[in-house]
Design a protein that fits this description.
Layout: H1 2-5, H2 7-14, H3 32-50, E1 53-55, H4 56-69, H5 73-87, E2 96-98, E3 104-105, H6 107-113, H7 116-122, H8 131-144, H9 150-166, H10 171-190, H11 203-221, H12 225-229, H13 231-236, H14 245-264, H15 283-310, H16 317-348, H17 353-382, H18 394-411, H19 420-429, H20 433-452, H21 455-475, H22 479-518, H23 524-555
Parallel strand pairs: 1-2
Antiparallel strand pairs: 2-3
Length: 556
């Protein structure tokens, strides 16, 4: 194992470096006068071996392959210890590596340039870590990413792995967790050591900032509130609906702000907030962590539904099977999309062919392992006939969300969850947030509907002008140039009108989906109070879809 793990020996086995001539020669007695002359070649031979430099292009694939190969148990621990040994080796015999630009880099820098650290750490979430393994993970992180709180990171990953081990049927959760951890490590290791670490922003400051921005948007929208309530006034004045694109954009922003405020007041979530200093984490990392939280939230809603409907009774075998299959299909779709995207990149970027093929093989390996786990899980479900089965509780998924939130806070401290006492005080102070959020969604859909009511008239106007311009153009003469300009302007106006129509419908649909996602998190009292508003919003969305179909038909 040791010879396989050593990067220098791996390179020699792969042909990336000469092996060097270290064969001992048989000693023979020589005169004392010749003894000093014989020592020089031995020193020169050692210097030649020490001067060998491994190319980065050869070493990186070997490191990543080692990380993919040694994913469990003692082999992975030996790999980590070997990496730590090489990274801390300051002797003259330590192997150096030649980067693509010709500079010489250390083993630590080489490992950080590869994806080996991400690959090996993401494998930790597939099975529980012992206390010793968690400590080894902490040592690995502190060696290669010294600015990170290694203990907190290792503890979060270990806790997540422990919870996922109990949730063996949630295939999509494990896959999303691997992607999230992979991106977290990539962000943390690439963070510039010279940049200051972002400081957490208090919950009260975040809420105050949202309130200030919401007040601005409400002030802008105040001028059209009467038009939204009674669109006939604007039409009587010859203003169409009186709702401009800016008004719809402002209403959409208000929905976003109140949605963020509501999320901030939930114990399992922290809405996006700008860091007070330092660099922002990559969008890919935030997206991966939000994806993981979304997957866990789906299972949390399922668990709540079961607990509410059967009052803690055992879940049927059929329900568990359906949930496991649905989970498998969601993760399969994500992995299939990943494989498709990577394959496209392989075709388009020939210069990165070797690296992308390695990523594709990694995803395919996950898919194979996923199928194996699925077969085993379904077989286990089939063997439980006649026995009571119960799903995981909502509390379990709350703990999974908490572990994910810890990872998010490590990547971006400004997203750290607020202390429980601070959160409770904020919830009491902002108890009307759910109602304000629902009102903003309703207002957006009303404005969207009013704005869309103008579209058929605009489409008809554009079509008439286009038809007139085409007729004039066919006649030729002096009006041909003018008709061509009219035709171009009318076609542009028609395209802009339909693009605005699509944006309005997409914004309304996004607001509706946000409402559907957040409504289960309302308190029972809030749900009872706002259920009628939810029904009305659903009806308004149906009307908006009808308006969109009417506008699309007018274009055809």
């Amino acid at each position: 194992m040791a010879s396989t793990l050593n990067a220098f020996e791996l390179l020699q086995q792969a042909g990336g470096l000469p092996s060097g001539n270290k064969t001992k020669k048989k000693k023979t007695k020589k005169p004392a006068a010749a003894k000093e002359a014989d020592e020089a070649p031995v020193v020169q031979e050692q210097t030649t071996v020490d001067a060998e430099v491994a190319p980065e292009a050869t070493a990186v694939p070997i490191l990543e392959k080692s990380a993919r190969t040694f994913k469990t148990g003692s082999d992975r621990i030996k790999l980590w210890k070997d990496w730590i040994r090489q990274a801390t080796d300051r002797s003259a015999k330590a192997v150096k590596y030649k980067a693509a630009n010709g500079s010489v880099i250390s083993f630590r820098e080489l490992l950080l340039r590869s994806r080996a650290l991400e690959i090996t750490v993401e494998s930790c979430v597939t099975s529980p870590l012992t206390t010793e393994q968690t400590h080894n993970l902490q040592q690995l992180v502190s060696t290669f990413i010294p600015r990170v709180d290694a203990a907190a990171l290792a503890s979060s990953i270990a806790r997540l792995a422990e919870l996922l081990a109990e949730d063996s049927q949630s295939f999509d959760t494990t896959g999303a967790a691997q992607r999230a951890v992979h991106n977290v490590i990539g962000t943390l290791k690439n963070r510039d050591e010279a940049e200051p670490v972002a400081k957490p922003v208090s919950l009260q400051d975040r809420l105050a900032g949202i309130e200030r921005e919401a007040s601005k948007q409400q002030g802008f929208l105040a001028s059209v509130e009467k038009l939204v309530a009674d669109p006939s006034k604007a039409r009587t004045a010859g203003q169409g609906s009186g709702i401009s694109k800016q008004h719809v954009d402002s209403a959409r922003e208000l929905v976003k702000l109140y949605g963020q405020k509501f999320d901030l007041l939930q114990p399992d979530s922290a809405a996006a907030a700008k860091s007070s200093s330092g660099s922002e984490p990559s969008q890919a990392t935030i997206k991966a962590l939000e994806e993981l939280k979304g997957v866990i939230s789906n299972h949390l809603q399922d668990a709540r539904s079961v607990e509410d409907s059967v009052k803690g009774a055992a879940k049927s075998k059929e329900a568990q099977r359906a949930q496991a299959v649905a989970s498998l299909r969601r993760e399969e779709a994500v992995l299939a999309q990943q494989a498709s995207d990577i394959s496209s990149q392989v075709r388009a970027l020939e210069s990165q062919l070797a690296q992308l093929r390695g990523q594709a093989a990694e995803v395919e390996d996950k898919r194979v392992r996923l199928q194996q786990r699925q077969a085993a899980a379904l077989e286990a479900l089939g063997a439980t006939t006649g026995r009571k089965m119960s799903g995981l509780s909502a509390q379990h998924y709350h703990e999974e969300l908490a572990a994910t939130q810890q990872l998010l806070a490590l990547v971006d401290p400004s997203r750290a969850a607020a202390p429980s006492d601070q959160l409770a005080a904020a919830q009491d102070e902002h108890g009307n947030t759910a109602a304000a959020y629902m009102a903003s969604v309703r207002n957006l859909l009303q404005m969207s509907s009013s704005s869309l009511s103008d579209v058929p008239g605009k489409v008809l106007f554009c079509r008439q002008r286009i038809s007139q311009a085409e007729k004039l153009s066919s006649l030729g003469g002096l009006g041909k140039e003018k008709s061509a300009k009219t035709l171009s302007e009318s076609e542009k106006l028609l395209a802009d009108t339909m693009r605005h129509c699509e944006e309005v419908v997409a914004g309304a649909h996004a607001a509706l989906e946000g409402m559907r996602r957040r409504f289960p998190a309302f308190s029972p009292e809030q749900q009872a109070e706002l259920s009628q508003a939810a029904y009305e919003i659903e009806d308004m969305m149906s009307h908006i879809k009808g308006q969109h179909e009417l506008a699309s038909g007018a274009v055809r």
